[in-house]
Amino acid sequence: MMPIDRLAAAYPTLFAGTDLGLSDCPPGWETLVNVLCAVLSVEHPTVRCTQCKSKFGGLRFYVEEGAPEQAFALIRIAEEQSYRICEQCGAPGGPSKRGGWVTTVCAEHK
Fold it and tell me: In angstroms, rounded to a whole number, what is the distance separating the alpha carbons of residues 31 and 3?
């Protein structure tokens, strides 16, 4: 099972209506996104994710319009943290340009 599928199964209300075909969660960020989802589910149970993915080496976690500013603040924190976590394994890392793509990886996955 892919990380995005596990997250959607763990937080069905948060991911209700999410097009998982357009979403992805790199394995190294699964813990980061899991923590974000857990907090959002408790503190903002009406928030719905529309897409989760990696873009330009960072996490993008989109929610429906009208979400409370506090939810967006939590999302921004997770997105900022993603630039310091390897997408592949979860170890400390940083953005790296590889073949025209920017990914966040550790020294081992560089």
Answer: 9
Residue 21: the pLDDT is: 87
Give me the helix-helix angle, 3-10 and 30-43, nearest 10°. Answer: 20
Token pair listed for 93: 């890392």
Residue 2 has a pLDDT of 87
Contact 54, 60 (CB under 8 A): yes
Residue owning tokens 């980061």: 32
Orientation angle between helical segments 69-82 and 30-43, nearest 10 degrees: 170
Q: Which helix (H) or strand (E) holds 58?
A: strand 58-63
Q: Kindly report the pTM of this predicted structure.
A: 0.94
Count of helix runs (H) and strand runs (E) in the chain = 3, 4
Residue with tokens 């506090």: 70
- Quick one: average pLDDT of 15-20? 90
